[in-house]
């Protein structure tokens, strides 16, 4: 069978290239060897893969010193009867402006709230008092003052939750007002210290007589302090801390 070719394709000369060949289309010299396109100089091969190694932690900055842990928070209660000096105790030692919930006493409280015959008290705590003090770099006390009136007794369970100890403030001239507080902490099995507040620097009864009247054992510390004096309040709170620590050590030993 005769071959068929397109009329626009010229006949290639003998030994030559057809006009529609790749060499003719893209300018390659006829009859010359194929030329390779230009390439950039070969780059060096990449380095072999190596798994990453663990990096050492950065060296501590000696200019700022080692990191200091925050102080341990300790919750303590300041409890007692009505008008014995709980709010004054918190305010005397707190390193911040204490949170108080004082309300004016009105004629409706006559015969119900008795601040004592020698008291000039005109306000009363209707919820709680709050303050804090840093003992050292490792310890910070958060103080919660309880309300003294019997009608606010329902708050004591909530305020006592998480507390490690309590300071029961006592007025030596009105011992009857502190019995409910002592009974509460004995039932709750919470370490407490009885602090006799010296109003105007005087005591109505000696400490031995007060211990007998309160019917507390020798294992309960009984201290004398002044709720208006910061150092005196500090010493009383340190006794509470020592009592709480002693109990924690004994329980750990068991």
What does this entry look like structurally?
- The chain is α/β, with parallel strands linked by helices and 254 residues long.
- It has a domain at 72-106 and 123-253: Rossmann fold (3-Layer(aba) Sandwich), CATH 3.40.50.
- It has helices at residues 22-25, 86-93, 156-160, 179-188, 207-214, 230-253, and strands at 72-80, 102-104, 123-125, 129-136, 139-145, 165-171, 192-197, 222-225.
- It has a six-stranded mixed β-sheet with strand order 4-5-1-6-7-8, with helices on both faces.
- A hairpin with a 2-residue loop joins strand 4 and strand 5 (139-145).
- The chain is elongated.
- The termini are far apart.
- The mean pLDDT is 77.
- Keywords: GTP-binding, Hydrolase, Nucleotide-binding.
- It comes from Micromonospora matsumotoense.
- Pfam families: ATP_bind_1 (PF03029).
Order of strands across the widest beta sheet?
Answer: 4-5-1-6-7-8
Rg, alpha carbons = 45 Å
CATH architecture grouping of the domain at 72-106 and 123-253: 3-Layer(aba) Sandwich
Instruction: Characterize the biggest β-sheet.
Output: 6 strands, mixed
Low-confidence sequence ranges: none
- How much of the residues is beta strand, in percent? 15-25%
The oligomeric state of the chains shown is single chain
Class derived from helix and strand content? alpha/beta
């Amino acid at each position: 069978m005769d071959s068929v070719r397109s009329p626009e394709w010229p006949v290639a000369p003998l030994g030559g290239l057809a006009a529609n060949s790749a060499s003719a289309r893209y300018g390659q010299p006829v009859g010359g060897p194929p030329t390779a396109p230009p390439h950039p100089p070969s780059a060096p091969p990449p380095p072999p893969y190596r798994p990453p190694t663990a990096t050492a932690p950065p060296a501590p900055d000696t200019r700022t010193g080692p990191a200091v842990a925050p102080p341990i928070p300790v919750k303590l209660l300041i409890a007692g009867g009505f008008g014995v000096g709980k709010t004054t105790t918190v305010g005397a030692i707190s390193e911040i402006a204490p949170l108080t919930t004082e309300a004016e006493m009105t004629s409706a409280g006559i015969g119900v709230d008795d601040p004592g015959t020698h008291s000039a008290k005109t306000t009363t705590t209707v919820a709680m008092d709050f303050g804090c003090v840093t003992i050292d770099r490792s310890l910070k006390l958060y103080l919660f003052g309880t309300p003294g009136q019997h009608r606010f007794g329902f708050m004591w369970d909530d305020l006592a939750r998480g507390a490690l100890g309590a300071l029961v403030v006592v007025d030596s001239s009105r011992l009857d007002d502190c019995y409910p507080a002592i009974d509460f902490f004995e039932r709750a099995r919470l370490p407490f210290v009885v602090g006799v507040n010296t109003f105007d620097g005087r005591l109505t009864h000696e400490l031995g007589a007060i211990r007998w009247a309160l019917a507390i054992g020798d294992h309960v510390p009984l201290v004398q302090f002044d709720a208006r004096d910061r150092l005196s309040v500090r010493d009383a709170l340190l006794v509470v801390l020592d009592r709480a620590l002693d109990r924690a050590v004994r329980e750990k030993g068991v």
